[in-house]
Every structure is written in structure tokens, then in C-alpha cells.
Amino acid sequence: MSALGSAPGETACCCPQGDHDGCCGQAQEVDVVVVGGGVAGLTALNTLLQHNVTSVVLLEAQDRLGGRVRTFRQGGVLVEDGAEWIHGDRRNPLHRLARSLGALDTPTPDDAWDFRLVTEEGEDGDEATYDKLMSLMEETNENGVLEPYYNMSYGYYFLDRFPEVFPANTPRRDALLHLLEQTVNYMEGTGSWEDIAAQDADQYIDHGENFQWADGYDTLIDHLKAKIPGEAVRLSSPVTRVSWSCPARPSQARVVTQGGQVFLARHVLVTVSAAYLQLHHDSLFQPPLPAEFLKKLSGVKLGVANKVQLGWPEPWWGPRPLELTILWTKFDLPQNMSWLHGVVSLFSVHRQRAVLELFVTGSHSSQMEALEEDEVKAHVTHLLRRVSGQDVPEPTFFRRTRWGSDPWTLGSYSTFVTMEGNKAGLRRRSQLATPLKNSTGHTVLLWAGEHTHNTRYSTVDGAMETGQREARRIAHLLKAYC
């Protein structure tokens, strides 16, 4: 198996002051260390156990498992901080798993929603024009449509097509363009639709309608944890160093945690987010990762998207689930509230009849994260009163996420190939999944996570498949030793 690169020599030592016997003597020897207890890591651990690889330990930095899957419950309210949907029908293995567990819920029919299209002043929008806008957005799902734009940004496609669909005399034309851009940013998890390469956006394979879990996404985490022995998982164990080319141990890597635990492993599977890897690779890996690998890694970016959720004892908007779409025509909010200009949709949370949710991405999202919770709650309540024209009461439930400030993820979804990465030759995400061999030719470092999946990046099922992929690769390598 070819490697992306090898360790640049053996001058670096895996142990302090060359004390190979001392530091390695304190270590626990295992076949595999899995770094990260998100969906990719948990799936990898399960797959390894299924292949009778039992000498394995998973190291998770936080005091919980799940990564970017995090379900929150309070006083009968259930909301998702992170992953919320199963993206696809039976073509999606996660859909099939949820169905087999009896945990798959049915989507709310389209005609059950109270759909409202309004300006920020509460004036009605033209739904026929809105439908035309959504049709424009969906054009890129057609085969071959994006190919002429492969050297351009994804957003350029829409900027190129928009004047053809909406001529200069179209009412509220600027508001429609803003709505289109923010909707695309929601879909892709980008701060700007000009950040993501059109060729990358075209790699995603759609599996159909979205579905949800009947009782929270953490049903999946509970399922993945169920067959894992307790001793195989170490929580609150951030990895601080992976010495992956040690002269004294040519067929092992040395992994050290913040708490001083030391492991010697034949293989280390790294499942942390791309953003975390970009920020910390210098301090994490000894010797440094190969320049060619780092060049590819620098070609992706993990977007920052956040949710704000508000709830009331009863739905003030009426008995039906609400979908409220905003056409911004004035952009007249004061600076401290200007992050709301990035909000173009609010909708009822599944199975929560009196809870509304909004998404915000990019710089708007970062601005929201920097505010105090009471400010965010006041801002959204003000917005709801303005756009609905109703006497919206003070919410009794409030939650907002701050994924960009989370030190262990540094973002949310999705990890996209930037225009710079595209120009530098990053065409397939499998380039980020190529295992690394040390200077003796031993395959040491392996990579999993949604950012390494070619066609289902940004999805939970994509993360699961990468965990399975790398676990099978490791099981094959270990079998070869026997």
C-alpha cells in the first residue's frame, strides 16, 4: 500500500532525552489507538471489535462521546445541538440502521406546515417567485450542470444564472439574491458560497429525502456504545503527542495523553475534525507530518454554522408547525444585531410543537457566538415580533450552540474544498485519507471522519463509512502480521 509520505528521517526520538526503555516501559501496548470518540471513531472501534481486534483503546478528549452528535433534553424539550437529520432514504445505510432499531421517525408532510414568506417588516412575499428561486438552487443536482464551472466557486454558478432567471426589474431582487446565498450557505455549511469550489460541491451524492430519529440522534451513539467494553474507552483523555517514527520501536507509535497515559500502538487512527488537525498538527505529531499531506489538508475548511432554539409553553403562531422564510429588504438593524441579517429561515423543531429553530453561518455565526445568551435571546425575540407582526411572548426555553468556539471541533459542518485547495490539486477527499508510513515502511497513521469521504462529506453516515473503511484496513494489516 503506497503512502502519501514517509517520516523525514529518524533523528527525532519518541521518548524524552532518548530514554527509550524508561518511557516505553510505562506504556500500555495495544494494537490500535483510536483518537476521537465521535461517530467515525465509535464506528471504527465497533468494526475493529467485529473483526476480533480487541487490543484497542479509544481516547476521547471530552467527558462524553458523540462528537458533533449532541442531543439536549430539558423539561420535556428535545433539541439537537449538532447533527439533526438522516440525509436520505434506504439508499443511506444510516437510514437502514435506524429503521432496524425501530428508531426512525416519519417526516412531517409538506402540506402540514404553516409556510410563511415575509419581509423583515412582515409584508407577504411572492411564493411563485420563491418557488422559482428554489428551482434555481436545485439545478445543481442535475448531472453535468456544474462541470463548466469546475475552476470556479460554487457561488459563481448562482451569480451567473441569477440575472437570467431574475431580470433587473424583478421586485425585491436583492432580497431574493440574499435569500439564495444564505440558503446555499446553510446547505453547505459555508460562510460564503464563493469559498467552496464548484467541483467539490458536485461530488456530493444525494440519497433523497431527509428523515429524523424518533427520540434523538443520541440513539445512534447509545447503539454504537452498547457493545464496546468499558475498558476500551478513555474519556477526558486529550492526546497531546503522537510519536509515529520511533527508532527504538519501528513497528509502533507512542501516544501520550494530557493526563500522562502512554500507549504503544501498531496503528493510530485519527478521527478528529479537519479544523482541529489544521490547528494542532505541529504540536501533536513527532516528527512533523509530511509537507505533501499538509498541503492537501490546508485545501479544506470546516465551516462554522450554529443553531438558536427558543420554546414556549404553547405555539404562539398557531397549531401547525411553522416554516418562516425572511426576505431582507432593508438590512437596517444596528451593528450589535446585524448577525440576524444572516437568518433567513426559522422553523418548528421536529416533535417539539412549541419550539422554533434557526441556523446562522459564517461571520454572522461568529458574531452571534461572541454575544451573551440574553442578548441572543432578545435579538431573536425582537426579530420574531417584527417579521410575524404578532405579540410574541418571552420564550421559556432557550439554547444556542457555539461550535466555532468549541476547542475540540472548531466548527460544525461541512468540511469543504476551498477554491485555493481546488487550484492546488485537491480533487478527491480520499487524498486526505491516505495512510502514512514511518521511515521503516510500517503503516502507522490512518485517517477517518466526514472530511475524508469523497461523496458523503458533512454527513453522519459519511463519517460512519470512513470509520468502517479504516477499521477494515487496519484489520487487514494486522492479519498480515500473523
Can you walk through the features of this model?
The chain has 482 residues and is α/β, with parallel strands linked by helices. It is 30% helix and 20% strand. It has 14 helices and 22 strands. Strands 1, 2, 9, 10, 11, 12, 13, 21 and 22 form a nine-stranded mixed sheet that branches. A hairpin with a 5-residue loop joins strand 21 (436-437) and strand 22 (443-447).
Describe the secondary structure blueprint for this structure.
Layout: H1 20-25, E1 28-35, H2 39-50, E2 56-59, E3 71-74, E4 77-80, E5 86-87, H3 93-100, E6 104-105, E7 114-119, H4 127-138, H5 154-165, H6 173-188, H7 198-201, E8 210-213, H8 218-225, E9 233-234, E10 239-243, E11 253-257, E12 262-270, H9 274-284, E13 285-286, H10 291-297, E14 300-302, E15 305-311, E16 322-327, E17 345-348, E18 355-361, H11 362-369, H12 373-388, E19 397-400, E20 415-417, H13 419-423, E21 436-437, E22 443-447, H14 460-481
Parallel strand pairs: 1-2, 1-12, 2-9, 7-16, 10-13, 12-22
Antiparallel strand pairs: 3-4, 5-8, 6-8, 10-11, 11-12, 14-20, 15-18, 15-19, 16-17, 17-18, 21-22
Helix pairs in contact: 2-14, 4-5
Number of helices: 14
Residue share in helix: 25-40%
- Assembly of the depicted chains: single chain
User: What is the approximate shape?
Assistant: globular
Mean pLDDT: 94
> Which residues form runs of ≥5 with pLDDT under 50?
1-13
Structural class: alpha/beta
Distance between the termini: 18 Å
Number of strands: 22
Task: Report the β-strand fraction as a percent range.
Answer: 15-25%
Largest sheet: 9 strands, mixed
Overview features:
482 residues, alpha/beta, nine-stranded mixed beta sheet, six-stranded mixed beta sheet
